[in-house]
Amino acid sequence: MRATVIHAPHDIRVEEVPDPAIQQPTDAVLRVLRACICGSDLWAYRGESARQPGQRIGHEFLGVVEEAGSAVTGFRTGDLVVAPFVWSDGSCEYCAQGLQTSCPQGGFWGSVGSDGGQGEAVRVPFADGTLVKLPADAASDERLLTALLALSDVMGTGHHAAVGAGVTAGSTVAVVGDGAVGLCGVLAAKRLGAERIIALGRHEVRTDIARTFGATDVVAERGDAAVAAVRELTGGQGAHAVIEAVGTEQSMRTAVGITRDGGAIGYVGVPHGSGTGLDLSVMFDRNIALRGGVAPVRAYIPELLPDVLDGTIDPSPVFDLSVGLDGVPAGYKAMDERTALKVLITP
User: Which residue positions in the chain have pLDDT lower than 50?
Assistant: First the structure.
């Protein structure tokens, strides 16, 4: 089969690789219908996170079960399914508490020795604990299929940030970051009943999507100017809940600066850079809580799925460029140069 591999920074290739096969009775083999490129994939692309030459890449995908191992009970050939970005056994204590990202037998797609999502097929370990079944007729609905793909990562990650930030009905929320996760954070905050949502971003195409998703205000400034603008919008107090969806030192400093005393930050931006930007004494004095981390999206899919199916939430607009497998290297370049927000892959 063909799959995307990374050989070096800025060297993404689509190559012939061995076909996936059942290795354990709990495995399934999935034919990929839709995949995409994540903003976090760009850290490997830029050389900011290490990868072995020839390592697979990609962790967001959905598709059809081609084969199921003898111990798989929840799925059969032909089922349409979505895969969260981490596989998990579904039976350990962490999985039971909804923290599948800490499953001792779990792992990330594209890690050394595993398949990546940006290819024609994937071997799925622990299929019963990992995959979530989708309605079969969704396969013929292009918009719905694209919206469902967002459940593999960005929609669940935006929701994780909103939950961590303590978004409640009537609250004021600020979202730092105008990437796909930040935009899905706006959508999640709206779904949870936020009354006011302030989106921080400088790219008009993206902030237009934020407004469509429920943002009531847009702040285009950065750094101290952004903090001042949000405080002006909130009567000097800041937001009750802040979603941090970037992961840099500056973005975290901004998040702390715009949080209301007694508020909380939900952080899901993959940390990168020289430091965290956290000043614990400031957070201590102002009673600011910090919650978040790697989103256990497998725990959130059953909650979010009905709202995607009935159109209550539609994250599909975050995908603004579609490519086939041959176009994946160009898709990475487009996202790296910020000419694309999120690239959809149709193998």
Answer: none
Q: What is the pLDDT of residues 140-167, one digit of tens each?
A: 999 999 999 999 999 999 999 999 999 9
Give the integer Cα–Cα distance in Å for 153 and 223.
Answer: 28
Q: How far apart are CA 124 and CA 28, in angstroms?
A: 5
Classify the C-alpha dihedral 293-296-301-303 as positive or negative: negative
Closest CA to 28 of 101, 121, 124: 124
Give the pTM. 0.96
Phi and psi, residue 29, nearest 5°: -110, 130
Give the Å distances, CA to CA, from 20 to 122, 187, 343.
6, 36, 24
State residue 3's pLDDT score: 98
Residue by residue, what is the 3-state secondary structure of the chain?
Answer: CEEEEEEECCEEEEEECCCCCCCCCCCEEEEEEEEECCCCHHHHHCCCCCCCCCEECCCCEEEEEEEECCCCCCCCCCCEEEECCEECCCCCHHHHCCCHHHCCCCEECCCCCCCCCCECEEEECCHHHHCEECCHHHHHCHHHHHHHHHHHCHHHHHHHHHHHCCCCCCCEEEEECCCHHHHHHHHHHHHCCCCEEEEECCCHHHHHHHHHHCCCEEECCCHHHHHHHHHHHCCCCCEEEEEECCCCHHHHHHHHHCEEEEEEEEECCCCCCCCCCCCHHHHHHCCCEEEECCCCHHHHHHHHHHHHHCCCCCCHHHCCEEECHHHHHHHHHHHHCCCCCCEEECC
Exposed/middle/buried for 331, CB within 10 Å: 0-12, 13-18, 19+?
buried
